[in-house]
Specification:
- The structure is a single chain.
- The strands form nine sheets. The chain has an eight-stranded mixed beta sheet with strand order 31-32-34-33-35-36-37-38, with helices on both faces. Strands 1-2-3-4 form a four-stranded antiparallel beta sheet, with no helix packed on it. A four-stranded antiparallel beta sheet has the order 5-6-7-8, with no helix packed on it.
- Helix 4 packs across helix 5.
- The chain is about 15% helix and about 35% strand.
- A hairpin with a 2-residue loop joins strand 9 and strand 10.
- It is α+β, with helices and mostly antiparallel strands.
- It is built from ten helices and 38 strands.
Length: about 650
Amino acid sequence: MHLPFGSWPSSITAQDVAAGTKPLGGACFYGERIIVQEGRPAEGGRITLVDYDSNGQAGKQLVDAPFNVRSRVHEYGGASWTLIEQGAAQLIFANFSDQRVYSLTIGEGEPTPLTPESMVDADPALRFAEFKRGPEGSVLAIMEDLRAEPVRHIVAIPLDGSAAQDLSNIRILSAPARFVAAPRLSPNGEKLTWISWEHPNMPWDSTNLHLAEMTEAGVLNSNIIAGGEDVSVMQPEWLDDDRIAFISDASGWWNPYVYQDGSSRTTRLVDRPAEFAGPLWQLGTSWYLVENPHSLLCSYGTGTKSLARVHSVTGGLDDISLPFTGIRPLALKDDWLLAGTSSMTHGEQIILINIETLEHREITRSIQSLPDPAMLPEVEEFECKNLAGQSVHALLYRPTQAGYAGVEDELPPFVTFVHGGPTSQATATLSAAVAYYTSRGIGVIDVNYGGSTGYGREYRNRLRGSWGVVDVADTVAVINALIGQSIADPARIGIEGGSAGGWTVLCALTFADVFTAGISRYGVSDLVGLVQHTHDFESQYMFSLVGPYPEAADLYEKRAPINHVSKISCPVLLLQGDEDKVVPPAQSQVVADALAARGIKHAYILFEGEQHGFRKSENIVRALESSLAFYSQIFNFETDVPVIELS
């Protein structure tokens, strides 16, 4: 059937996208069972832990409301729980509201606190994340101390609850550092390794890998064994009592290495133009696990990620062929690998894989009710050249629905997705949000502009000093290539993104003329406001993306869309959470006021109770439907969602 692009009837609703999607986090083995971290959009985005059997049959929810298993370290959190099996199995987790650490004996009673209250002006001043095996009777963690100048430590939290009333019972192990991560105790308990970095670096810029002796008196003889200026080291793991595996981009690509204590010898295990790690936005993110002292199971690749066995003694790797576009090894028991995977047919899943036979079975998935396959697009890796002759990567999703096509001589509208970060990457997976558009006859192009991860340090560094320039130029180059190849209608080109992606949206609408509509979700518009008021983790991120502040204040003013709103000539939709501390609502409000003053069509929707990103199902629904309604009004096609009022 031939119908105008954008107006195809679709069975994928915004309610399906929101209610039918549960965010998945880490997972671990628990005896013969499996524990999985899951989000609950219908409960305001609360995060809990759920028990499954090895066939994917859900048992009980292990952490009940009002507890919310979510850390606020660095505001982005991560690694907010672990399982300790010393005697009775205990779940150790950070609770969102008070950021205290709690212990819960599985199957018995209520969670009990392990750390003290620390509220200052109604905000927790002590925060904890990345819980790992510690000295006997304790758990290792990152402690973020915001009572004065921010500082982070590696600490040991006693499991007996003695620190719940007395902070001094928490043992500080590492020297003060602005940022620390990845604490790992050697198997014999005699050594400790971790990474650290200082302002103005981000962890993908420069980190140091530390090694120290662990004694009754504390940590002694700490040395830096890898990393340094313009070298990013990630995820140290012990192979045995003397060898540490880690990922480093000293070669220009995040590749695996081994450090031998005693001889102080470092060996590169794989020499490939491929990434074995990614940006450390959330503490505890992992890209490999130790299979045994002789091998690692690693995720690696560029646009898509594969599984490989890396040999930690002889070097080299053996690929393991699996039908996924992405994979994260999580835990190993006998011959069974527990992994987080993604694919174009099932989206994000937690999977059990037999690493000998490659048999695999689903434990759970993010998309609860898979869309009709007739509604799903295929992904194409798209590459073009920018004006400087450099390659730009993107993922292309053409309008797709079995039985439907556009009318004769009509080209489809396209929506340009711009990922956040900006040090991040758009990856290929089944996305209900993408299919929400493509099944209605709207194409999607997901751009990995210069500065994105996944393509090596040189590609990542293209954004240094050029945020708001390179990302815009590369995105425009992709759109011009689509138009030049008669893939997209040049009169109906939208662009949307959140956070840092929202910044690129606003810059593109301000400084380029190929887009005819834009949607900014909690997007940065004021660089000076961001650098002065954002949280500590990102407070000097702008120094590498734009320039040092206040020395480069003029450049901050020149780049910021908020100072050039008069150049925006197409309609804009602004979506913002009212509790966002990363990008405060005031930034979106200023843009809305400026658009109103110039008479530019726009709408500004403020979502109550949302922070940096929308977690409540009703708000996810409203944001999606508002976006589709916005495009339908601007691109002149009919749709079945409520109309939004444009001022």
